[in-house]
Fold this protein.
Amino acid sequence: MKKSLITYSTVDGQTKEICKRISNLSNNTFVEVLPISEVKNIDQYETIVIGASIRYGKYRKEVFKFIDNNIKQIENKDNAFFSVNVVARKEEKSSPETNPYVIKFLNNINWVPKKIGVFAGKIDYPSYKFFDKYAIKFIMWITNGPTDTSKTFEFTDWKKVEEFTRDLNL
């Protein structure tokens, strides 16, 4: 039986939700979904999918550390990377070739993923602490995004997630 790992780094949980959806859409495969901080050994998997979210323009350090520590094993397996960021809500920034965070990420690592995806994330103002709520509101104001702090705004295109999953052939 083919074993696959979908691992993620998330701040608010949308990347985890996308990982769970990818797992649920996979075909006849044993798929394990784990936070990147809990992955101990990737040798048992044939496929590695890494999902990472952006907060204040950066991926969390654990993503870079995981890739650096496992680069040889990752490169020798079927692999993929996807980014979750609210900038991807804009059509012109929603592909690996046009998303500034993915471009910067790929320029700062020594790995070339076999498959790359970009998904728009979610803004959940009611769940944020004071600083995050108003910092994100300010960023959204600058970028013409939603600023009503009483609401949640989900931008994830689930059909795009389904297409990405089909292309993974899990």
Remarks:
- Residues 3-120+156-168 form a domain with the Rossmann fold fold (CATH 3.40.50.360).
- Residues 120 and 155 are 5 Å apart (CA to CA).
